[in-house]
Amino acid sequence: MTMETAKQNCDEYLKWLRFVLNPSLPVPDIKDWQELYKFVCQQTIAGICEPTRFSNVHPDTDVLLEWIGMVERLRGLNRLQNSQIADLVGKLKEVGFRCCILKGQGNATMYPDGELRTPGDIDVWVDTDEKTLIEHVRREFPEEKEGFKHIKYPVFKDTGVDMHYTPLRFVHPKYNKRLQQWIKDNKEQQMTHYVRLANTETVIAIPTAEFNVVYQLGHLMIHLFSWGIGFRQLVDYFYVLKSLEGISDAQKTEIVEDWKYLGLSRMASAVMWIETEILGLPEGLALIKPNRYLGRIVFADIMKGGNFGKYNKGYKYPKRGILRRLYSLYRLLKFFLFFPREVLSRIMKRSKALLVEKP
User: Given the DSSP bridges, would you call strands 122-126 and 161-164 parallel, antiparallel or unpaired?
Assistant: First the structure.
């Protein structure tokens, strides 16, 4: 494939994704459905991009059969995960823990058809302190080690579960202190914002759109600095922004002030460029002026790396190897000029352990 052909295909993929999110647009002309299918699989957005949902679209038969099969598997996985969440929430309730389901199936409730979203792990924010939550998990799974903001809870054989004592942490001390206070101030509303999971009788708490538009932006920034983000996360955020349609000017101002207070304004301006220019979000929903320069830097990384950067070269290095650590440091340096405070904090933290292998 020539570079010109690759660029043309890339333009087609993005036009198709934009059309999927904005079906009132003209139907794009797709010349290579096989390559489009490969792209949406790498970005884990195959479900929402499946073409038979739209009239006047005629993809190749071979790829279509595979695509339809993928969609049916996604529907099954989403139903399974909803059932697992129902079990998990019930189990936590029995021992006296309130909880809130982060991202994942909570985000799926904002989609026109949530069963077309590719599910990942279950992230649950438990309303207790770090020590209590770790002790609770280790009574069942003594070998589990705590992480930066959560501890693994391998209660399901086929689905990972992360039990969060906080939804998000920053490395930069000042901004992390502000973030934890912001989370504390908003926790009660998140723990009591209830929705019904699809195909279940279970009512669960998920974050409000006003919380998600701040929290999930921070989550995007953290993953951008580590291995990368993909279009699944940007599509999630597209629907978070869409769900804010109709909020007051005072609420918009408060969100922008929260971004500024937490050091997220530059990330917000980059993401808003992608959301408006690439995904077709109406400019009135962007909340902050898009930054084309920063947006194109983040966008290029998404196109290169796929879902969570899994197609970036460094992702394949051994987890405990020096090459992986060097690549991680390289990614931080790459973003230093654009997000200096948080990046510098991470560089200082990682450089101390760069040549030290953990036992």
Answer: parallel
- CA neighbours within 13 Å on the CB side: how many for 36? 26
Residue given tokens 């957005």 in the structure block? 45
- Would residue 193 count as lying in a domain? no
* Sequential DSSP letters for 154-209: --SSSS-EEEESSS---SSHHHHHHHHHHHHHHHHHHHT-EEEPTTSS-EEE---H
pTM of the model: 0.91
For residue 210, pLDDT beyond 50:
yes
DSSP string, 126-160: ESS-HHHHHHHHHHH-TT--B-SSEEE---SSSS-
Residue 70: inside a domain? no
In a domain, 23, yes or no: no
221 contact partners, CB below 8 Å, separation of at least 6 = 264, 267, 339, 342
Residue 72 within a domain = no
Q: How many domains does the chain have?
A: 1
Q: How many whole angstroms separate alpha carbon 289 and alpha carbon 312? A: 29
Which residue segment(s) compose the domain that 253 sits in?
208-359
Residue 161's φ and ψ, nearest 5 degrees, are: -130, 125
Residues whose CB is less than 8 angstroms from the CB of residue 280 and which lie 6 or more positions away in sequence, other chains included = 18, 21, 22, 25
Tokens read off for 189: 């509303």
Chain-centroid distance of CA 356 in Å reads 31
**Can you read off the two tokens belonging to residue 187?**
């926790």
φ, ψ for residue 174 (rounded to 5)? Answer: -65, -45
Say yes or no to pLDDT of 1 above 50.
no
Q: Looking at per-residue confidence, does 5 or 156 come out higher?
A: 156
In the numeric block, the tokens 């290095």 are attached to: 317
What are the tokens at 194?
């209830």
